[in-house]
Specification:
With 216 residues, this protein is an alpha/beta fold. The termini are far apart. The model has no long low-confidence stretch (mean pLDDT 96). The chain has two domains: 1-104, Rossmann fold; 113-139 and 150-216, Formyl transferase, N-terminal domain (Rossmann fold), CATH 3.40.50.170. The strands form two sheets. A seven-stranded mixed beta sheet has the order 3-2-1-4-5-6-7, with helices on one face. The chain has a three-stranded antiparallel beta sheet with strand order 8-9-10. Helix 1 links the parallel strand 1 (5-11) and strand 2. It is built from seven helices and ten strands. The protein binds ligand LMY7XDAE and glycinamide ribonucleotide. The ligand Nc1nc2c(c(=O)[nH]1)N[C@@H](CN(C=O)c1ccc(C(=O)N[C@@H](CCC(=O)O)C(=O)O)cc1)CN2 binds at residues 89, 92-96, 101, 110, 112, 121-122, 143, 145, 147-148, 150. Glycinamide ribonucleotide (GAR) binds next to helix 1, strand 5 and helix 6.
Length: 216
């Protein structure tokens, strides 16, 4: 692992995006290694994925702490024990405190199942279907204090077909997630991706100029 970036992944569930990142690291499509996986929920399949990959993993349950702030303080201690260069949220379903965000700002990524700024928050697939949208998608962004409001790095679009259930759309979105999240993680590991103010910078240029921000 010498010289490669150290990545800690936070999960709350199945971990298919975690698996995509693990696989990309193993295939040397990411100049990094996942050195730790932390879940706020026990017995999720994402922890099994980490175990199967020989990656250190642990549970830090938010239910064990009196407040969001105290949980986040302990989560920081857990994460920092791995000495990460990058912290990746991969289906991590907790709103993070300003203190946590400030501790990792600029090296904290999230993947969100919508074309931000549309549909911040939860239940995005059903909301898009209910709105009669014909296009949906996924966004990878830097995490800021504003929930799902951080600078967008890369997006991918998918069609919504008549008769789609939320599960159909989620599966279509997942395919794109597993494609673009490893790309973005590798950009960071290659020292090509930074955050300046509320803007993502790739190869020294604001992403809007590079055109990546709205990749099909
Ligand atoms: N400060 C920030 N925290 C988080 C961000 C962010 O951009 N800024 N991204 C989210 C990820 N996320 C959507 O992509 C998200 C996760 C969780 C929630 C939410 O409402 N969580 C509830 C609990 C829900 C549950 O347990 O099922 C809560 O924390 O009370 C909304 C959006 C990660 N955090
Ligand atoms: N608001 C955050 C959010 O909804 N994130 C979404 O959770 C799923 C996790 O799947 P996974 O556990 O299989 O990677 C992903 O679809 C991700 O976009």
């Amino acid at each position: 692992m010498s010289g490669k970036k150290r990545i800690v992944v936070l999960i709350s569930g199945s971990g298919s995006n975690l698996q995509a990142i693990i696989d990309a690291c193993k295939a040397e499509k990411i100049d990094g290694d996942v050195v730790g996986v932390i879940s706020n929920i026990a017995d999720v399949f994402g922890l099994t994925r980490a175990e199967n990959a020989g990656i250190a993993n642990e549970v830090l349950s938010h239910k064990e702490f009196a407040s969001r702030e105290i949980y986040d303080q302990n989560l920081i201690k857990c994460i920092d024990a791995y000495q990460p260069d990058l912290v990746v949220l991969a289906g991590f379903m907790r709103i993070l405190t300003p203190q946590f965000v400030q501790h990792y700002v600029g090296r904290l990524l999230n993947i969100h199942p919508s074309l931000l700024p549309k549909y911040q928050g939860l239940n995005t697939h059903q909301r898009a279907i209910d709105a009669g949208d014909k296009t949906h998608g996924v966004s990878v962004h830097f995490v800021t204090e504003e929930l799902d409001g951080g600078p967008v790095i890369l997006q991918a679009k998918v069609p919504i077909f008549d008769g789609d259930e939320a599960s159909d759309l989620a599966a279509r979105v997942h395919e794109q997630e597993h494609r673009i999240y490893p790309l973005v993680v590798n950009w960071f590991c290659q020292n090509r991706l930074t955050m300046s103010g509320n803007c993502a910078i790739l190869d020294g240029k604001p992403l809007a100029e590079n055109g990546y921000a709205n990749e099909e």
